[in-house]
Amino acid sequence: MTQSPEFRGLAGILVVAVEQAVAAPFCTSRLADAGARVIKVERPDGDFARAYDHVVHGESAYFVWINRGKESIALDLKTPEDAALLQRMIARADVFVQNLAPGAAERSGFASAALRARHPRLITCDISGYGEGGLYRDMKAYDLLIQAETGLASITGVPERPGRVGVSVADIACGMYAHAGILQALYERERSGRGKGVAVSLFDSLADWMTVPLLHFDYGGSAPPRAGLNHPTIAPYGAYAMGDGKEIVFSIQNQREWRTFCAEVLHRPELADDPRFCSNPARVANRPGLDRELDRVFRTLTRDQARRRLDAARIAYGALNGVDDLSVHPQLRRIEVDTPSGPVASIAPPLRWCDAGGEGEGEGNLRPVPALDQQGAALRDEFARP
Prior knowledge:
Mean pLDDT: 93
Strand content: 15-25%
Radius of gyration: 25 Å
Shape: elongated
CATH topology of the largest domain: Rossmann fold
Order of helices and strands: EHEHEHEHHEHEEHEHHEEHHHHEHEEEEH
CATH class of the largest domain: Alpha Beta
Low-confidence stretches: 1-6
Helix content: 25-40%
Number of helices: 15
Largest sheet: 6 strands, parallel
Distance between the termini: 40 Å
């Protein structure tokens, strides 16, 4: 069952976004999924994310992912005519989002505080690299730089060297927080009648995700070590090779599961009370010895045999899949999205909706990804006058 656009929660909300790259477009694409009208303001040569790659019928994978459902207009904000047009758009908007380079919005005449003073119901959202204060406020910032700067790269990878998380987690985290902040501001405006400013940075967003490693350092004396495909502070929790060379990732979360695992999967119930392994801190401290005990059992089993034991014991496990496996995964939901170069079988949004009776309403039909300036002429007409 599909959800009609007029019944989406943000129908009637106008969002104007001067945006590029990933964080802000991620945020506004989710507002568009919820029914908001999103006008994407691009530079005359387009959002540079359009040229990150050309793998999707000639379109960028990044751009297709986070720009569905928007209208595109190309503006040169250095010209008085285009700057005035953007001001007229903002005057009618509910939300204004920008993630320009540090200081660029203010220099162009679009400082958030000034916009809210002129339009009291307006919600503004400023997305930056390091925030609006501090020594780093004027530094440019991109995802991998923030992964390195926050220490995420130092706890990611194999013991011999740090690594990058394989997707743009700083951008995604920031876009998610921006989305949540805008929804909070819209809800507050329903009661107060006034908009407010939302500000979020890539650094703050990923620093929040680094809370557990930081607390380990501040209060435990050291950050969790890089552990490859193992959890640094829970054991056993990671990838283990079976006798046929295939791997399984499994997780033990508590002492009850540990006892069950020893008895029903390893067939070694005595290990549950071994002083080296009788608690999670002990297992982490003695991980090499624990792994040797597990390997003695697992090298006698095929992956299918190990899975049957894990299933019977109700121990959580998963396959060590590649992207090729994800592409045909039985749980993967897809939805068709139109792009300027043709339809794309994209991943469906994670949110699914149910009506009051518990019946699913589906994720709805996602609106197309726009070509550069596709709606430019119509928007110039619509906003020709205040």
